[in-house]
Amino acid sequence: MQDTDKRIINNVPIVKIYTEKFKTVVVSVYFRTPLTSREATVRSLLSRMMIKQTDKFKTNAALLEYLAEHYGAHLTSNVVKKGSDHIVKFSIEFVNGKFIMEDMDMLGDITAVLKDVLYSPFNYDDSDQAFFQREKRLMTNRLKSMRDNYSQRAFEMLLETMFETEDYKHLSFGDLETLETLTLEDVKAAHEKMMASDDMSILAAGKVEDNIFDYLSQLHSRETAKMYPYTGYPVRSVSEVKYETAHERIEQAKVNLGFRVQYQDSKDVMSLNVFNQLFGGSSASLLFTNIREKLSLAYSIHSQVDVKNGYMFVLAGVDNDNIQIFEDAVKKEIQRVIDGDFEASFVEEIKRNMLSSRKESMDKPRGLISLNYNSLLKEQSVKAPKAPWTEQLKKISKDDVIQIAKKIQLDTVFTLKGGDDDDK
User: Fold this and answer.
1) The domain spanning residue 61 has which CATH number?
2) What are the residue boundaries of the Peptidase M16 C-terminal domain, all occurrences included (predicted)?
3) What is the pTM of this model?
């Protein structure tokens, strides 16, 4: 049994997802604002600081000890890009009080911890400078280590090239250059803005009763509602393919291709979802089967999509001598789809796998919350009600996949290869 109840209390949407599948409860708090490089960086640092220590728990060890005493409650923060927005999410998973013999107000204690997490930055002062500098240093080291990952670096450079004048090039966790300039005052200001102005939502999943609204409504209140449409970036056509190459001392080239999809109607979004799985998003895909397995042109290869914005990326590890051959092979696979050179049964198989994956996500509390948050965003953005995700998926045919393939335009090819700049 599963039931969803949405209420707006204190001008904040709160969603209760009742399910008897789990012995734990997950509460997630989302904050959404338009994406910029500075916002992404300072909010990423802020989110890391907020779950490390609070007004009540002056050290991370004290906070972790308290959570451990509450049957191993687990507190996390996360930052993501979604549409044209930057999202900060705080989640805490804990054992449902119904299954505890001990006399403990689990929900009350956990809500108090979450409120402590959300409100502590209001009180940051000079005594928190050492804490701030430590977290800033740890985040700096993390971003530097990510740059040392050549696959990650190649993808970042693809984004910088493809979206040179667009905010989408910014990463959800920010960048080193901005991080170096941040002060504790910047973090405090970002927190105040987040609590006052962000689109905020609270979701809870588990075997919970209506009294959870009484608890969760204590987390935050606003004088006016702050709920904004969830939008993507405008569709842009490609006038000329951009080619960029960088060199590193690596054995295996990283070849990344970026595509823009010329969306024309609402069905295109689900069509792209199915196309991606068929094209390169699964182990049964054309890219994996034909380019990696049959032609041995890639050590690794996959495609991924941002369906909200209509972007697709093909990321691969390729021998330095096979870069052009590889690019041509990828184009050939897209043309194969356009030509309808695949079976309708393949599309049905892909759809079954997608449905199975979605059901698997719903068998986990965090996955269930993520799916319901997506639904919440759509409610705020779509004037006419949309059919459920599963119904949209069922309606996708082989012809829909062919039609979306025709709307995919190669925008950028970025290659990180071995050798020197003079090597051709």
Assistant:
1) 3.30.830.10
2) 182-353
3) 0.94
> Is 355 within a domain?
yes
Phi, psi of 73 (to 5 degrees): -55, 140
What DSSP line would sit under 307-345, residue for residue? TTTTEEEEEEEEEGGGHHHHHHHHHHHHHHHHTT-S-HH
Could you tell me the two tokens for 413? 């090819």
Q: Is residue 84 within 8 Å of 232, Cβ to Cβ?
A: yes
Pair (206, 251) in one structural domain? no
Q: Classify strands 311-319 and 300-306 as parallel, antiparallel or unpaired.
A: antiparallel
Which residue segment(s) compose the domain that 250 sits in? Answer: 242-417
In a domain, 237, yes or no: no
Q: Sorting pLDDT into bands at 50, 70 and 90, what band is 421?
A: low
Same domain, 322 and 407: yes
72-100 confidence digits (pLDDT tens): 999 999 999 999 999 999 999 999 998 89
Tokens 């599309």: give the residue.
Answer: 347
Q: In degrees, to the nearest 5, what angle opens at C-alpha 392 toward C-alphas 389 and 397?
A: 140
Element (H, E) at 112: helix 106-119
The pair of structure tokens assigned to 79 is: 């930052």
Q: Please indicate, yes or no, whether residues 15 and 155 belong to a single structural domain of this protein.
A: yes
Query: pLDDT grade, residue 423 (50/70/90)?
Result: very low
Distance between CA atoms of 31 and 195, rounded to whole angstroms? 8
Tokens of 102: 């001990």
Residue 382's pLDDT band (boundaries 50, 70, 90)?
low
Same domain for 324 and 277: yes
Same domain for 194 and 285, yes or no, is: no
Question: What token pair was written down for 72?
Answer: 């191993």
Q: How far apart are CA 91 and CA 204, in angstroms?
A: 9
* Tens-digit pLDDT profile for residues 240-282: 999 999 999 898 999 999 999 999 888 999 999 999 999 999 9
